[in-house]
Specification:
The complex is a heterodimer of chains A (260) and B (335).
Chain A lengths: L3 E10 L2 E11 L4 E5 L6 H8 L7 E6 L2 E2 L5 H7 E4 L11 H6 L14 H13 L15 H14 L4 E5 L7 H16 L3 E5 L3 H7 L2 E6 L2 E6 L1 H4 L2 H8 L1 E6 L2 E7 L8
Chain B lengths: L6 H21 L7 H8 L5 H36 L11 H14 L2 H4 L3 H23 L3 H24 L4 H12 L7 H28 L3 H6 L4 H23 L5 H9 L11 H21 L8 H24 L3
Helix pairs in contact in B: 1-3, 1-13, 2-3, 3-9, 3-11, 3-12, 3-13, 4-6, 4-7, 4-8, 4-11, 6-7, 6-11, 9-11, 12-13, 12-14
The chains are: A alpha/beta (260), B mainly alpha (335).
């Protein structure tokens, strides 16, 4: 199968199990949100898919090929990663930073091809960065910098995108726009996996939600099912309700008998 | 702030400047030559005394200064790209000190008298030991400060062993020799000395040029760079071996000359879009220009005892290093 696939993946570090027989798939054309409490294994799952986390057992497939059998360039041509911690050590121009996304295609050197230039221009336009092309990245606002990193990922034009907390630094309107951008890539046939803490946003934008807890996948389905009130009560200990296709979150649920 | 990329005009301009500096270094001196006399001497004609001045004194010396500057400028730019830190440099990180220690050991034990290539080979071995240690340390200690402290430690260690060697120097002559290695100088280099070091130097530069395109991508962090298609292990190997070979060969030619590798990349960086890969060749050329000019200064300042090139380089370079460190510290803040 093309897209992204994790099969019975197990990751253990320093005696701690980070992923426990976790299986998930993201098909081309789908925007899948990976949700769960802190330390549920969401980032580990993303890193495992990218081949950055050695698996104790199980496998990770990019475009149907075991990630361990791919070269770094082969991986980069199949999937682009927007990590949680993103920064550049050097004050590159915005245009150059986005151009680096073409590295695996040979387009980050002195002579980018017409296709490389088109990909960079399209990514800059999609993220509303055309006017900032020559600005140094370290002089931009947090929101603008986040868009530069997203544009770098889009410029790679890979068949899969893995975005870890892409809305972390963003105001609600920008967060919404970012998810719409990723959804548009999914409509264009890309397999998109997004780690998201904002469950309300996830409910509105995801084609499917995968819920994780303690390294395991505990729910996988349409937002309405995966984020059903009984799921959220069990996993997050939080009250919630659905009105139509809108999720509303309530107060923390305190265990019965515990001090309030 | 806008970012400019003037890599190509900068590179060609610096190449022309480097050539002009070498020509100038051949012309001026206690016995000044006219351009016509220089051309005649280079062609093997004209006054035999001029031929000796050009072929045996000035040209080897200017070329040695140029090549040492090229090697250190390129190594500095590449190490800065690999370690994502504008303060990385063979001198500051103790690579040059380890190389000159190894060169001194080779001289001390008479290896060089018995087998001349032992000098560059020993210096390169010392440089490689230091770069490997640094890259191992960089992978473990993730802060800039820790890495620089490892470099300070390496420098001190090499310095202590050097003092030990000096204490036990068998003859006053070898003592003077060793001081030259520790201080850095290109006086009295012959074309044969150059021929011994140049192959290693060029091999090192070739490895660094191979590494250059991915240095910018490494600026996004090692794991992100890996996800973008960079073979990070291959990159480490290329930069370690390349800067080890180039720095080792430079030390074999001139001893430990510091700070060129930090000042040259710093000056060209704003004109190359802050891209450590694109800065590589311009840094190398500017490093060469700086050392040829510094060596002319050494030759022209009237003094009984000739100044050492390394001393002049440090007098200019060390304050620049402090200034860059202060600015970098402010930019990075909560690292």
């Amino acid at each position: 199968m093309s897209g992204l696939e994790l099969v019975n993946a197990r990751v253990a570090k320093a005696g701690q199990v980070l992923l426990d027989a976790a299986s998930l798939t993201v098909r081309p054309g789908e925007l899948v949100v990976l949700a769960g409490p802190n330390a549920a294994g969401k980032t580990t799952a993303v890193r495992a898919l990218l081949g950055l986390e050695p698996l104790a057992s199980g496998s990770a497939l990019l475009g149907g090929t075991d990630v361990r059998r791919l070269t770094p360039a082969g991986r980069a041509r199949r999937a682009a990663w927007l990590p949680q911690n993103r920064s550049f050590a050097w004050p590159f121009s915005v245009g150059r930073a986005v151009e680096l996304g073409r590295y695996a295609w040979g387009g980050a050197g002195a002579r980018p091809s017409a296709q490389d230039r088109e990909a960079v221009d399209a990514a800059l336009a999609a993220c509303g960065l055309e006017g900032l092309r020559h600005r140094a990245v370290d002089t931009l606002s947090g929101g603008e910098q986040a868009r530069v990193h997203l544009a770098r990922v889009l410029a790679a034009q890979t068949p899969a995108i893995l975005a870890d907390e892409p809305t972390g630094m963003l105001d609600p309107a920008q967060a919404d726009a970012t998810l719409d951008l990723l959804a548009a890539r999914a409509r264009a046939g890309v397999a998109v996996l997004v780690v998201l803490h904002d469950l309300v946003l996830a409910a509105r934008k995801a084609d499917r939600v995968i819920l994780m807890q303690s390294g395991r996948v505990v729910a996988d389905g349409p937002p309405r099912d995966a984020l059903a009130p009984e799921q959220l009560a069990g996993v997050f200990a939080i009250a919630s309700s659905w009105t139509g296709d809108r999720l509303e979150l309530g107060a923390r649920i305190t265990p019965r008998g515990a001090p309030d | 702030m806008m970012v400019a990329d003037r890599t190509w005009p900068l590179t060609t301009g610096l190449a022309a400047l480097a050539l002009a500096c070498v020509v100038l270094a051949c012309l001026i001196g206690t016995a000044p030559l006219s351009p016509g006399e220089l051309l005649a001497a280079l062609a093997g004609a004209g006054d035999p005394a001029n031929r000796v001045i050009v072929w045996e004194i000035r040209l080897p010396r200017a070329l040695a200064a140029l090549l040492v500057g090229v090697a250190l400028g390129a190594s500095g730019a590449a190490l800065q790209g690999l370690l994502r830190n504008p303060l990385a440099e063979p001198g500051v990180l103790g690579v040059s000190a380890m190389a000159s220690l190894a060169a001194c050991v080779a001289i001390y034990w008479g290896l060089v008298a018995w087998f001349p290539p032992a000098l560059p080979l020993a210096a390169i071995a010392g440089a490689l030991v230091a770069t490997v240690l640094l890259v191992l340390a960089a992978a473990r200690a993730r802060t800039v400060v820790a890495l620089l402290l490892v470099g300070v430690g390496l420098s001190s260690f090499a310095g202590a062993l050097m003092s030990l060697l000096l204490n036990f120097a068998p003859t006053p002559f070898s003592l003077a020799d060793m001081v030259t290695w520790a201080m850095g100088s290109v006086a009295n280099r012959s074309l044969e000395d150059l021929a011994l070091a140049v192959p290693f130097l060029l091999a090192g530069l070739a490895l660094l040029v191979l590494a250059a395109p991915a240095l910018a991508v490494l600026g996004a962090g090692e794991e992100v760079a890996a996800s973008m298609g960079v073979d990070v292990r291959r990159m480490r190997w290329l930069v370690v071996a390349g800067s080890g070979l180039a720095t080792g060969a430079a030390v074999a030619l001139a001893g430990a000359v510091g700070f060129v590798g930090i000042v040259a990349p710093h000056l060209v960086r704003p004109l190359t879009g802050h891209d450590p890969g694109r800065a590589l060749v311009p840094s190398a050329l500017l490093g060469g220009v700086i050392l040829v000019l510094a060596d002319m200064l050494v030759r022209l300042v009237p003094s009984d005892q000739e100044l050492k090139l390394g001393v002049v380089a440090a007098l200019i370079g060390a304050p620049a290093f402090v200034a860059i460190a202060l600015r970098h510290g402010r930019r990075e803040e909560p690292s």
